[in-house]
Amino acid sequence: MLFVRCRFLHRPQVRLAYEIDGDPGPWLLFLHGAGCDNRDWDGVRACLKGKPFRLLFLEFRGHGASSVFPGPFSIEDLAADALALLKHLAIPRARFVGHSLGGMTALAAARQNPDAVESVILIEGWTALRASRAFGPNRFYGNLPSQAIERITAKALATRRRHTPDNWATFWSSVQAFDGSDLLASPFCLVREVYGAMGRRPDSEKQLLVPAHPRIAWSWIPDCGHYVPLEKPAETAAVCQMPITPSGSHAPGTPAL
After folding, report:
1. What is the DSSP letter of 50?
2. What is the pLDDT of residues 116-173, one digit of tens each?
3. Rounded to whole angstroms, how far apart are CA atoms 212 and 255?
4. Which strands make up the sheet holding 216-221, listed edge to edge?
5. How far is 80 from 161, CA to CA, in rounded Å?
6. Which residue range is the domain that position 206 belongs to?
7. Pseudo-torsion of CA 229, 25, 213, 33, nearest 10°?
């Protein structure tokens, strides 16, 4: 585990934990998934060491070292938190790198303030939650060992228990209702869609609700499921550094599938 300094941004009724790392260069803002925290990025972070990027990691309200908001909240609040962090640090624009819920939050942030979003990397960051049905069975945890799966499930359960049932239900309803199809239909920034290739079917791209568009590129990461940053940190780090082009290119060293 990396030893890092945790900093805090104070927002109305909530304290948000964040970390800064890296070298001078463009900013990458990392947003984790539901029930996760910044430790999910540690492998990716290590692979980016010495690269010309500034790395910013935010823990959502009620996750990790961030405090729990005392009332109802939504995915739009998570997006507003991310944008507030950029403003607090005087970062005019950043590349948003979001896993799962973090990807959905990145899309929500792009809708709220497109000027702050240089580009978006959606690592299994669903256009809408129903897109998670695009794959075959038994691929969610991929090839993660049982100990890693136990840590994921325990952390997710602990996160949920920090919230009142009503507040978590309100939040999750907002996630279920979220739909970024309008943003992808006419994206105002470059987008890279990144998915683990386990369970991929012939109609997966269609089921993922991602339209063909010159501003949207794809990367398929072989031999992993939903938790791409944990299973394939080196490949994830490589994708974070790739220019986003309309070529539909894949992660370096990986075959087109």
Report:
1. T
2. 999 999 999 999 999 999 999 999 999 999 999 999 999 999 999 999 999 999 999 9
3. 20
4. 7-11, 14-22, 54-58, 27-31, 94-99, 117-123, 190-196, 216-221
5. 23
6. 7-241
7. 30
Let me know if residue 77 belongs to a domain: yes
Rounded to an integer, what distance in angstroms lies between the CA atom of residue 16 and that of residue 220?
32
CA distance 20 to 57: 7
Decide if 229 contacts 142 (C-beta within 8 A).
no
Q: Is residue 252 part of a domain?
A: no
Question: Which single residue is written with the structure tokens 């944990």?
Answer: 230
- Whole-model pTM: value is 0.93
At position 69, the amino acid (one-letter code) is F
Query: Residues 230, 46: contact at Cβ < 8 Å?
Result: no
Closest by CA to 83, choosing from 96, 67, 98, is 96
Rounded to 10 deg, the angle between the 165-177 and 75-88 helix axes is: 90
Extract the tokens encoding 193: 């869609």
Q: How many domains does the chain have?
A: 1
> In this structure, is residue 24 part of a structural domain?
yes
Residues 162-218: pLDDT tens digits?
Answer: 999 999 999 999 999 999 999 999 998 999 999 999 999 999 999 999 999 999 999
Q: Which of 141, 240, 123, 128 is nearest to 193 (CA)?
A: 123
Give the CA distances from residue 127 to residues 45, 80, 103, 105, 151, in Å, rounded to whole numbers and listed in that order: 25, 18, 8, 10, 27
> Which is nearest to 63 in space by CA: 1, 154, 155, 169?
155
